[in-house]
Write the structure tokens for this entry.
Amino acid sequence: MLRQSPYILYSDGSGNIFEDTSLFTVGRSGWDAMPIDDEDWIELPDGGNLYELPGRRGIGIDVKTGEMRLCLKGWAVAAFIPPAHTGLYLAAYEALDDAPTLPLFCYTAAGWLDDKFYVPAVRIEQDIRQECRGFDKGKVDEGVERLLAAYPHNRLVKHLAENCALTYECPAARNYFMGRWECPVPASPACNANCVGCISFQPVEETIISTQDRLTFKPTAEEIVEFTVPHLETAPYPLISFGQGCEGEPLLMWETIKDAIIEIRKHTDKGSININTNGSKPDAVEVLMKAGLNSIRVSLNSVLPDIYMKYYLPNNYHFDDIIESLRVVRKYNGWSSINYFVFPGMTDRVVEYEALREVIRTTGLNMIQWRNFNIDPDWYLGRMGVTEPGECLGIGQMMELIREEFPDLKFGYFNPPIERMKNFDVDFAH
Ligand code: SF4
């Protein structure tokens, strides 16, 4: 708990950030700016970044008058908080008319106090797999060289090396080349949804760009099996995950994935096989569960069908399909998670909370991965057509209410390995 609110930050437009000690930082929920409780602040975790928000003025509370006003000393500043942490408030600012749409990152409130940067956030995940200090570039480069030599004709290993690990610096791909934990297996160049904030494809008419390019080929089951079996055999806490940020929807490749899972399990029973998906094809999920899939993570911006449909803009499926996919996995005693895009002022709406309770009850959900929503807040609310979000609980309080009502439901940020599915409190962080 801080002794007082941190001071607001501003940027001089030349890459320098300063504190303004005449203003305390406030947070944003939906369209509203509001004070942040002193106990909600944590130090900006290692691996976090600070962003200047072009064309935007920060909102703060005058330390003398207590009035809310703009910081006119420079441009607004927000924090990109690292994985394993969930933001409780967005950065509060007022956008000028010609302010550009912000790229696909999360924009959490940030402040300065006693020579430190602070953010309103919680550490929601103890798994250290994406701690930035845990990555060793030398070991990644060595792994890339060794595995490209080991699989000279494997297009997926080449993609994971050249694009994911060395260009996008994807933590999952770097963990693969360091021979540990979760190995990414992108499989689909196509998707059956058109998410507003898709990170692998943005329509040309949009002003923002996708943060990575989508896979350009359909891998074969042989290519998948060739590098995943050795990873499952040798890595600590091994798991492989279909469905990555650099592809479309893996369920569109269910036949190939089915063949790969069957072949993988002929060679090893180690580790677990997961799919990150939009959950659009419950029939395909059933086939994959029968083939040996262990877990699913369904991504969603909301459990309210209208807000979900406005964001995902599906080609040929409906909200009920994704709920059915979660049920199917539980029917086969698999582990089911939702990848819940957290947006203060939307996620913690009372209507959303009530709908989430229903989804947890009716699907037997195992885990919520409380992910920061990487999107421009004004742009998102505008595209969702939300002018009055209505009553909100606060992200922190919503988490507490869900935790109390569903004590067996796990909270986190990453797909658990089989060891954690069996005993969630396994101490694998060391
Ligand atoms: S489901 Fe994934 S790949 Fe498909 S549009 Fe949405 S974010 Fe993009």
In short: Residues 7-123 form one domain. The mean pLDDT is 96. The chain has two domains: 7-123, 138-422.
